[in-house]
């Protein structure tokens, strides 16, 4: 359930304003109370009476007439439809704005380094929302023995926040953030390109996790669904286009190594958790009814008949048979070409540029430095052997 402020939880500056309003003798308790309540924050009506009678907060001085005038002139000072107010909700406002900025930037057209900007900005968003949670829970989130170069307080970084036992971020969501932090460390020290498509599934999971945490801990009225519409595309994807996109989006080796090193310690279940990495299949829908056809995006449960059918389409496209070089040679022997050797195979793929991802003959294996071949490569090798039957029979 979303956390709620306790009744009478007025900030010190608010108590000063209440005293300033009481001093004017223009407002009764109910009128003053209205300035400090809103749908996501309630103040017990007794709080104003206790301040008037000096039963509480006696040590706090009343705000000056000028401060009271400034307060009234800027009231309600609400940021948006979520009902957040500066300055008491500043951390939550910053968290939401940082996440909105990250998504808008990533969805924006014409940017070449969207992933890098996204990672840095969502880490800021998650840091602020973690601080907002700690503040509400009364947990000090300032380093005890560290200061900024100018001598100011140094607040916990996101890694420190994630290690705190009480913050209710799900384990898979923490793993997702630890992954993005590791990638940030990798890209901040060297130039990195072509990583948008590689990390997109992790980014999507990060956004969903943030929104769920925002709603569960601070209230559903803070959710970002209505603020962030779906991103429209200008492209359709045929087989040739997919091959070209894959060829152009091959990530740098240092990034691939960083991802492999991080995921080496994860179980299959952890890697499959949608809170760590969310993967989605898009299938064009041809509906007979106008109501069904007009809906741009439909989410279908995996265990329904429609979901099973989509999964079959998805696996037909992606889950290709994979063969090692030795397995390819064995299959060629079984087809009646016993004199075809591993050396012949190496010469053939080098001559045909078989490991060029754009040709679609194979892909990198699960382990660093390995390569696996698809069924269409075996067919291509068989064609070569048929054309040179006397040599290989």
Tally of DSSP β-strands: 4
State the strand order across the main sheet.
1-2
CA distance, first residue to last residue: 72 Å
Give the SSE string. HHHHHHEEHHHHHHHHHHEEHH
> Over all CA atoms, what is the radius of gyration?
30 Å
Going by helix content, strand content and strand pairing, the class is: mainly alpha
Mean pLDDT: 79
Total domain count: 3
The major pleated sheet works out as: 2 strands, antiparallel
Residues in helix, %: 40-55%
Q: Strand percentage, roughly?
A: under 5%
Q: Given the structure, what is the number of helices?
A: 18
General shape: elongated
Poorly predicted tracts of residues: 1-8, 287-296
Pick out its properties:
elongated; mainly alpha; 3 domains; 52% helix; single chain; disordered N terminus
Textual characterization of the structure:
The chain has 393 residues and is mainly α. The chain has three domains: 12-74, no CATH class; 90-257, no CATH class; 325-392, no CATH class. The protein is built from 18 helices and four strands. It has helices spanning 12-24, 29-34, 46-52, 65-74, 90-107, 114-137, 158-163, 171-187, 196-218, 239-248, 253-263, 268-272, 290-294, 305-318, 325-334, 342-351, 375-387, 389-392, and strands at 142-147, 153-155, 362-364, 371-373. The strands form two sheets. Strands 1-2 form a two-stranded antiparallel sheet. Helix 5 (90-107) packs antiparallel against helix 6, helix 6 packs parallel to helix 9 and helix 8 runs antiparallel to helix 11. The protein is elongated, with a radius of gyration of 30 Å. The relative contact order is 0.07. Residues 1-8 and 287-296 have low confidence and may be disordered.
């Amino acid at each position: 359930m979303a956390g709620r402020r306790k009744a009478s939880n007025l900030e010190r500056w608010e108590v000063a304003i209440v005293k300033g309003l009481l001093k004017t003798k223009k407002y009764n308790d109910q009128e003053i109370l209205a300035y400090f309540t809103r749908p996501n924050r309630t103040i017990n009506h007794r709080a104003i009476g206790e301040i008037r009678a000096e039963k509480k907060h006696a040590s706090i001085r009343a705000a000056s007439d000028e401060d009271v005038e400034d307060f009234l002139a800027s009231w309600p000072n609400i940021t948006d439809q979520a009902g957040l107010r500066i300055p008491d909700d500043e951390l939550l406002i910053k968290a939401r704005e940082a996440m909105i900025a990250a998504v808008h930037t990533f969805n924006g057209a014409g940017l070449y380094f969207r992933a890098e900007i996204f990672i840095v900005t969502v880490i800021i968003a998650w840091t602020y929302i973690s601080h907002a949670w700690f503040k509400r829970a009364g947990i000090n989130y300032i380093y005890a023995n560290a200061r900024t170069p100018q001598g100011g307080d140094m607040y916990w970084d996101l890694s420190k926040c994630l290690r705190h036992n009480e913050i209710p971020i799900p384990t898979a969501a923490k793993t997702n953030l630890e992954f993005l932090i590791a990638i940030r460390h990798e890209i901040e020290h060297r130039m990195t390109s072509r990583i948008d498509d590689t990390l997109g599934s992790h980014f999507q999971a990060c956004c969903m996790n943030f929104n769920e945490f925002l709603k569960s801990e601070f209230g559903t009225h803070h959710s970002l669904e209505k603020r962030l519409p779906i991103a429209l595309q200008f492209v359709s994807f045929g087989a040739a286009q997919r091959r070209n996109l894959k060829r152009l989006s091959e990530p740098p080796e240092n990034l691939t190594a960083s991802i492999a090193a991080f995921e080496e310690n994860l179980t299959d279940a952890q890697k499959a958790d949608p809170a760590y990495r969310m993967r989605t299949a898009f299938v064009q829908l041809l509906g007979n009814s106008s109501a069904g056809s007009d809906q741009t995006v439909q989410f279908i449960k995996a265990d329904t008949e429609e979901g099973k059918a989509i999964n079959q389409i998805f696996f037909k496209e992606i889950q290709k048979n994979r063969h090692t070089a030795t397995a390819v040679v064995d299959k060629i022997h079984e087809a009646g070409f016993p004199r075809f050797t591993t050396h012949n195979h190496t010469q053939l793929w080098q001559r045909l540029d078989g490991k060029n991802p754009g040709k679609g003959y194979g892909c990198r294996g699960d382990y660093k430095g390995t390569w696996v071949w698809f069924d269409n490569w075996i067919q291509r090798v068989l064609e070569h052997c048929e054309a040179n039957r006397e040599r290989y029979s």
